[in-house]
Amino acid sequence: MRPLLVALLTVPLAFAAAEPEAKPAADAAQEAKAQAVSEAKPVTEAKPAAEEATPPTADAPEGWMSGTVEIGNRWIGVPKGNFAAYRSVVDLGEGPRLTGLDLTFQDPSKRLFERLDIRGNGWGGDPFTTARIDARKSTLYNLSVDYRKFNYFNFLPSFANPFRDVGVQLNQHSFDTNRRFTDVYLELLPSGRVIPYLQFTKDSGFGRGITTYVGGGNEYPVGTTFRDHTENYRGGVRFDFTKLHFTLEQGGTTFKDDQRVFTNDRNLGNRTGTLLGQQLFLTGLNQPYGIRGNSVYSRVLASASPVSWVNLTGSFLFAQPQTDSRYASIAGGNFASLSTLLLYVGDREALTAEAKQPRTSGMFTAEVKLAPRLRLLGSTMTDRLRTSGAGLFTEQFILGVGAGVRDFNIPLFGQLNRNYNRTQTEAILDLTRWMTLRGGYRFVSGSANYTGSPLQTGGIAGAFTGGELKQHLGLGGITIRPGQRLWFNTDVEGGSATGNYFRTSLYNYQRFRGRARYQVLTNLQLNALFTVLNNHNPTRDINYRFRSRENSLSLNWLPQGGKRVTLLAEYTRSTLKSDIFYRVPQDLSLERNLYRDDAHIGTAMVDLVLPGQGLFQPRLAFGGSYFKSGGSRPTDYYQPMLRVHAPVHRNVEWMAEWRYYGFNEAFYRYEAFRAHTVLAGVRIVQ
Amino acid sequence: MDRPLPMASESQYPNTGRGPVRGAPAPLPALAAVLIFSLGLWGGQQAAPPASDPKPEAKAADTGPATYVGSEMCQACHEDVFKSFLKNPHHVVETNKSKGWEGKACESCHGPGSKHAESTSADDILNPAKAPVAKAEEACLKCHLNRPSQVGRIQGGHGRQQVSCSACHSVHSTPPSARNLIPTEGRAGLRGSKLLRPKSPQAVNEKCATCHQATMAQFNKPHTHRLNNGAMSCVDCHNPHGGFLPRLQQTFAANEPGCLKCHTDKRGPFTFEHAPMRLESCQSCHEPHGSANPKMLTRQEVHLQCLECHSNLPARAGQQTPALGGVPPAFHDLRSPRIRNCTLCHIKIHGSYANRAFLR
Fold it and tell me: In chain A, what residues touch B201 (CB-CB under 8 Å)?
């Protein structure tokens, strides 16, 4: 690895001796043009100057292929602090990488394709890898292939053991998960009016980790493996006419999920004392879990403009996923059951169950232009979901050698129903040339109920719970644009409810959002954002109060149209305050939960084009982000970076990047980590 | 950030010839009537292509409405835009007869250009990028209105809040030369700002960040989705054109939340559902844009996350519980640290095939 580092770092020195090529006349002309353009245009159009500098005109000499390839090697300084937390948050690894690929092919003959784009990112072992291919022939097809790979690692002690006073314990939930996602979409374009399309999506995941086996009056950390696989097929036809469009689509999915929980070691579990006078332990466990599922779904979309002042759209969506599950468990050890007051040395479980979830949704919207400056928008939608699951759970306690067994056959039943309806009307009025007003009303209603039995093995009677949703909301907004330099937009939403599903749901609430953009100078622009949400649920025993605010200010500065310097700076301040009463399970006394989050987030990035000749102008980008929050979980997380690009040939650049990750928590200090990463390599530009 | 600032002028409010509708009925009851009425009208008015518009003329008349002059006339002055446009996907409008604008691609958006060609005044031509949103939308929706992406337009926030198409789509531009881009996730490069349809995750995210800078800032928190690594983009979870789900959420398998597209193992259906997943959404417990709390939870400790809902006493007979999930759990001694992490035992918290208490 070290020779590679030396080679990569010395490449620019070797090339530096070579005399840079003369500045091509075309480039000089384009730069002059870019400067002229940047002087003439406001910042919103002039930036970034680099882009304007080389507009890909037909006159520019351009081959059938263009793009960039970046390859390099990454080194990680030995992370200080908690390596598991580093892997859970960052997880970048060492070694050679294809860090970026962005190629465009254009076939002059247009035989197979007119344009082919290939992009890739993070190949060579990074925890996130992407690849995408887009191909198009305008009279025949559109094709896109998307592949992504994500590796997740999670091992955070504070999550597993939030009671920080007792010190650090080994995490009993950790997962090392790999996910793969492939998506292929083909759109056929035999005519401009009828467009058939097909899509295939495959999503799979596998991994291993530590989870908990809960049974026999104790819980035991045990090993687990998991593998799931979903395939989604859909196909349809789009009919595009001038005044009417509709899409008919039919799709289906298959689903497979296999999990296994196991251990062969003697395990005392988390219970430190005895239960029913017994020391509980687990000596062996094998628990395979298999789920198979499928679904069919249909989608109909339509839009029409029967007359020039009316636009109508509608959709009908239906899906019916279903699953069949099989589960078995064999456990040995010393167990106790509080519900049956039994002591036993073995436990066998078996389950067969199935569940269905038909879901029907529909939406209809209308836009009526009552006058040149007045529009009326109306929409109504409904979403209905029915879930029903049933199964048989069999459990057998092995009471001991010669003591026999106890069998339990427990029918399972679960049902969740939901109806949701929303109707909204809004008027939009262009009051003057520079002011637009919006106002409207929304009514949301719904009902939900849940039935499940039994609560536990042992057969406590099933529970029924239900809720109703009823909200009336007022909507408003104003957009002001007194000139090209200033734009201001606000949105207000306020509502009151007579019922909602959950204690923390939106009840009586007000939401305000304001955005402003001000172009101070030709090359300097400011953006500001302010949002606030207040929510209050006055129901007895709840009295939930919630308030969140977000203020953000960003600055974009491109002196000389960004020819040499580009600066972006953002600062966001967000506060969140939640206050609710809850009952402590052991004595049902009322406690108050106050959650606070007071965060500052800053981001700054500077791009510099350093002095040089022609194409041989080194570029430097530096900056980073900083996150600091106080309140219930004070956390610092900062990620500065520096990146250098030095052209060493007309088509080759040397690049180097340094990043730093610093993470610290005031309460959970054992999770802090710090790490440096260095990436060096070459960037080939065509 | 690069959203074109609206420019107002008298010419942006031309008489559309529609006229006000007098005595408009109440909106919602009228919807059904409008639908029936309009479907009836539609039958006889199908697809009158704009090819029937006035023929291109070399020079406009001095008086009267402007006429079409053809793209070659535009090229004479706007050479750079014209050549750039040759590589733009919209160039198909110029050559494809079925679109009805053959040879008049420029005027398909900017309107007839004879007066502008004569006067060279910006007041004599429509510039959708600087026009009021309603006017700018008209130029785009002339062709794009009846498309699948527009079906949820009114339902979505962007359509209602007057975000014009050109705020996200740069119609003339082609992708910038790769040579001049510093490929960092630093948004100073603003790579997505000049694309008709940004496709790479970085380009999409940079585009969204120009307005949603506070949301993008959330991704600098430690526990978040992988947007800053270029592995995901905003449109993986949100449909900027709108849809039937709130917050412009993408859908999976027709009408299921887009989260389940990747988190398929949480899809179910389960024998025993955890109600918040179906009645509200994953955001009941998670902050998908980023959080200081592990697993992107909305609270710093798991038992607080759970007990905020699972707290009320059971309702008496004939009374309704104040909220779903109000029945408290069985006796749990929170003084024991192993109890304070609820999901230590309730491992199948997103739903269970086997156990109502989500234990297995």
Answer: 121, 130
| A359 φ, ψ (degrees, to nearest 5) | -140, 125
What pLDDT, on the 0 to 100 scale, is given for residue B281? Answer: 87
Question: Which residues of chain B have a CB within 8 Å of the CB of A359?
Answer: 255-256
pLDDT digits (tens, 9 = 90+) for A179-191: 999 999 999 987 7
The position carrying tokens 């029936």 is B36
Per-residue confidence (pLDDT) for residue A464, from 0 to 100: 62
Instruction: Determine whether the interchain pair B217/A425 forms a contact, defined as Cβ–Cβ distance below 8 Å.
Output: no
Nearest chain A alpha carbon to B84 = A57
* Residue B304 CB burial class (10 angstroms; 0-12, 13-18, ≥19): buried
A654: confidence class by pLDDT, cuts 50, 70, 90: very high
Q: How far is A403 from chain B (nearest CA, A)?
A: 28
Residue A344 near residue A398 (C-beta atoms within 8 A):
yes
Residue pLDDT, tens place only, A369-407: 998 889 999 999 999 999 999 999 999 999 877 778 888
What are A243-280's pLDDT values in tens digits? 888 999 999 999 999 999 999 988 888 887 888 888 89
Burial class (CB in 10 A: 0-12, 13-18, 19+), A106: middle
pLDDT value of residue B173:
64
Task: Please tell me the distance in Å from A522's CA to the nearest CA on chain B.
Answer: 12
Residues 414-433 of A with CB under 8 A from B: 414, 416, 418, 423, 425-426, 428, 430, 433
Q: Which two tokens stand for residue A235?
A: 């196909």
> Percentages helix, strand, coil for chain A, rounded to the nearest 5?
10, 70, 25
Long-range pairs of A613-616 with CB within 8 A, sequence gap ≥ 24: A613/A20, A613/A23, A614/A20, A614/A21, A614/A22, A614/A23, A614/A24, A614/A27, A615/A20, A615/A21, A615/A23, A615/A24, A615/A27, A615/A647, A615/A650, A615/B179, A616/A20, A616/A21, A616/A647
Nearest to A527 by CA among A493, A569, A563: A569
Give the minimum alpha-carbon distance from A680 to chain B in angstroms, rounded to a whole number.
14
Cis check: omega of the bond before B269, within 30 degrees of 0: yes
- Cis omega (within 30 of 0) for bond into A454: yes
